[in-house]
Protein: Secreted protein
Amino acid sequence: MLRYIAWALAALYLLTVGLWPAAITPVTLTLAGLAAVIATIPPSVLLLAAAVVWLKRKPALAKPVTA
Structure:
């Protein structure tokens, strides 16, 4: 039984080591492209967009309950 577990772990290790670089490359390239796009936008525009989104998504204040 221990031999089967060892073979399974060895196969899992080899799959992980062999497939990880190929699987992570598109993610890395996408994040690098996104960083390049964000870097071209002026910070003031990003802050303004963040403020607009925050104001639109802010929860409404609860009305006080009157008796």
Remarks:
- The chain has a mean pLDDT of 90.
- The two ends are 72 Å apart (CA to CA).
- DSSP finds two helices and no strands in the chain.
- Residues 2-40 form the longest helix (39 residues).
